[in-house]
Amino acid sequence: xxxxxxxxxxxxxxxxGVFLIRYSFILIIDKVTLPEMVQRMLRYIPASVLPALIVxxxxxxxxxxxxxxxxxxxxxxxxxxxxxxxxxxxxxxxxASGMIVLWGILFFL
Amino acid sequence: MTDRKSTFLQGARDIxxxxxxxxxxxxxxxxxxxxxxxxxxxxxMMSVIVFAGASQLxxxxxxxxxxxxxxxxxxxxxxxxxxxxYSASIGPYLKGASPLQKAGLAYLLTDGGYAVSVAxxxxxxxxxxxxxxxxxGTNVVIxxxxxxxxxxxxxxxxxxxxxxRLDFAVPLTFTAVVMPAxxxxxxxxxxxxxxxxxxxxxxxxxxxxxxxxxxxxxxxGYLAERRLANA
Lengths: 109, 231
Description:
The complex is a heterodimer of chains A (109) and B (231).
Chain A: H1 7-27, H2 36-43, H3 45-59, E1 60-63, E2 66-69, H4 72-88, H5 91-108
Antiparallel strand pairs in A: 1-2
Helix pairs in contact in A: 4-5
Chain B: H1 2-15, H2 19-35, H3 40-50, H4 53-64, H5 69-79, H6 82-90, H7 99-107, H8 111-123, H9 128-157, H10 169-178, H11 185-200, H12 208-230
InterPro entries (chain A): Brnchd-chn_aa_trnsp_AzlD
Keywords (chain A): Membrane, Transmembrane, Transmembrane helix
Transmembrane segments (chain A): 6-29, 41-60, 66-86, 91-108
């Protein structure tokens, strides 16, 4: 459960920040090219940041200050979803397969 | 005048297939926000203000883990650093607009709208005014589809019982997003290192484990790429 007192600082902080990122070079029309080192680092952001969010969310269950293994059901569902994502590259199929496997284990096993 | 209108509609038509990928994002953002404790209006409003699905989901996930506000904002911004690239790449095509008009255009910038617009500019010789209208056609359609689906998600999410573990849709959505981005061996390595390190460092305070994972992944990926280039 999240604390709604964090809502406005977070939403305005990310909202204004993301807007400024979008606005940055559109405002400065000169043909700006980012340094190659920066461009290369930017390329790795999705492949680095997202797994750092995915893997702990799948494997770990945080309750207060205590961290435990989230369970085999989530792990199995995530592995199937990874397989489907890799084979189909389809967002809806990926999300649906993972949720259906999770529900199948939760409600029928 | 009709020229502008037809260009706008062409952009709208060209972007339509992408809605199939945008709408699930909106539905999940709206639904997960509510399932983690936001009122329906707040979950919907987040899409209007931030208008960036991956950042929103990361922020909701981190807020529900009681991460510090600084970590939540920083993560949300890092995930969207790719917009620097889009902005730099599409900026020259939108020269004709005033700074205020550009602010509106920038707010609407999306992955899909960027990709479809640039592809269109490279294909056909359109005047600068029409470039802006084509861009608007693509991104306004995404905006409407995204906000509309977020609102539906928020009100549907409000009635989904917690036993359904709707929050698990967040890592699944990220999985669908990250998979096409992993195109070569350095990327695979970056992803594995980042996920592993994030778990290993999960006991660190302030969700620093996330930062440790992301930074290790980026460094390892970059180094692996350099080694491959020199091999």
